[in-house]
Amino acid sequence: TKINQTNTEGNTPMMCKVQVVRWKVEIILNSSLSISIVCKNFLESLGQRIEKLSNRRIIDIYGEKYSSLEILIQ
């Protein structure tokens, strides 16, 4: 596992390259997040299904707001 660290205004995001089944992806580790965001194709390839609609709003790093479409309950 390769770990990259970048300091940004006092925050230290940690990125890792990981493999989940056949997918190789980069992830950002952040233990303070209340949600995790993954694409629908990724969930489907893992055999997971969406269980209910979401009413959460997500704000990206540029301040743009988006609606979360669905929720997977673990």
UniProtKB/TrEMBL annotation:
Highest taxon of source:
Eukaryota
What name does this protein carry?
A: 7700_t:CDS:1
Q: Which organism is it from?
A: Dentiscutata erythropus
